[in-house]
Structure formats: structure tokens, C-alpha cells
Recover the amino acids of this structure.
């Protein structure tokens, strides 16, 4: 689907639900996509992108950032502690802060590098074994722990279970954010981004609906 169609659908849902136009921002998820498709979306003027692997992002984005000024890059996949430095140098936001060890590592490097990407805590709203993210019951304490380390937590992120109504998970994420004074909500993907807008998402992570199905070789 053309990028403009996705943007139109987001605007329409913002309007329908009484939200300010542009208050739900589109993160175009470019992981695994052929470079020419990513460049086509950049040439349409889009500048906000998401990648889920540090290595993959490092291979393409430094050059694209030079060629297309104003690019903003979000890490939306799990972050290993040994890649934190590289991630902090490459990404404008890390949406997957999900454990104390990672928070300590980011806090240490923040002092050393003198800068820090914007930080989102990933919450495992479905309490799924195989999924990353802090458990909902542990979220408040973890957010407090991050703040205690001097980290500013700007947002929360979730990936709902595939077989459950996403709106319930979006609502839970919004509730946790509200009681912790957190403004940004990263939720909603290709299949449910309109529902996420209705639940207050400020970032929508949409991949295949923009770029087409991912082909893993
Ligand atoms: C791949 C991915 C997306 C995009 O998924 P689509 O269904 O292609 O829109 C969103 N969020 C995360 C965390 C992802 O890994």
C-alpha cells in the first residue's frame, strides 16, 4: 500500500477519535526490506524509521542518514548488552529497554558518550514466555529503577499476543504510562494501527503494510 494511503488512514482515525492531526507518528519498519523500497519511501519525504537489529541497521543507515538529512531511527528489537554502545551511537530512540542490566549499561554509556537516545520501556502486556519486555506487574518498579539511574523514560512500547484483541493490550499500556507520567506510547503494527490510534498511540510501527511482505532469505 502506498505510504500516502497509510498516512491518510492514520489522519482519518485521528480525526474520528478527536485527536490532533499528526499526534500519532508513523515509524516505517524497514527491517529486511530491499534497499530500493526503503529509498523510495525516503524519496517520498518520510524520515522516521524502525529497525529491529543493530547489525542490520548499522549496515545501511549511516549512509542513508547522510543522503537524507533529518532521518530519525528507532530500535524496536531486543538489544543485547554487548551492542549497547553501537545502538546508542546509531539510534535516536531505543524502544526496547526491558531489564535492569540493560538500563545500567545504558546509564554507564550515557555518561561516557555524553548523549543518550530517547528511551522507551518495552512491556510484555500479554505475559508471554517467548516475548521480551518487562512484566506489567514489574513495570512501575522498573521505570523507577531506570529513573534512579538518571535515565529519562519517555515512552512505553508493547507487542500484543497475535491471537488476542490488541485494543486491550493498548489500553493496559496506556494505563501503565498514565500512572507513571509517561507521554509516548509505541503500539500498533500493520494489522492494528488504527486501533492503536484510537487507544492513544503516539508512535505506530508499520512495516509490511508500507513495504510489502518481508522476504527472509
Ligand atoms: C517487524 C516489526 C513491526 C512491523 O510489523 P508489520 O506487521 O510488518 O507492520 C512492528 N514492531 C516490531 C517490534 C517489529 O519487530
Amino acid at each position: 500500500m502506498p505510504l500516502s494511503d497509510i498516512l491518510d488512514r492514520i489522519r482519518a482515525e485521528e480525526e474520528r477519535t478527536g485527536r490532533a492531526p499528526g499526534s500519532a507518528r508513523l515509524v516505517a519498519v524497514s527491517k529486511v526490506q530491499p534497499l530500493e523500497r526503503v529509498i523510495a519511501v525516503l524519496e517520498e519525504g518520510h524520515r522516521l524509521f524502525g529497525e529491529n537489529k543493530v547489525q542490520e541497521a548499522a549496515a545501511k543507515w549511516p549512509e542513508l542518514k547522510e543522503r537524507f538529512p533529518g532521518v530519525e531511527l528507532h530500535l524496536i528489537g531486543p538489544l543485547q548488552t554487548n551492542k549497547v554502545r553501537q545502538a546508542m551511537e546509531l539510534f535516536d530512540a531505543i524502544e526496547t529497554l526491558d531489564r535492569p542490566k540493560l538500563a545500567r549499561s545504558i546509564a554507564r554509556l550515557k555518561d561516557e558518550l555524553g548523549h543518550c537516545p530517547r528511551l522507551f520501556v518495552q512491556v510484555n502486556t500479554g505475559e508471554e514466555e517467548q516475548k521480551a519486555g518487562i512484566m506489567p506487574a514489574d513495570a512501575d518498579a522498573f521505570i523507577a529503577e531506570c529513573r534512579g539511574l538518571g535515565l529519562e523514560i519517555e515512552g512505553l512500547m508493547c507487542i500484543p499476543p497475535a491471537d488476542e484483541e490488541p485494543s486491550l493490550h493498548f489500553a493496559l499500556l496506556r494505563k501503565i504510562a498514565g500512572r507513571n507520567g509517561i507521554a509516548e506510547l509505541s503500539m500498533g503494527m500493520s494489522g492494528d494501527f488504527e486501533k492503536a490510534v484510537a487507544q492513544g498511540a503516539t508512535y505506530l510501527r508499520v512495516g509490511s503494510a508500507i513495504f510489502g511482505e518481508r522476504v527472509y532469505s
Remarks:
- The mean pLDDT is 97.
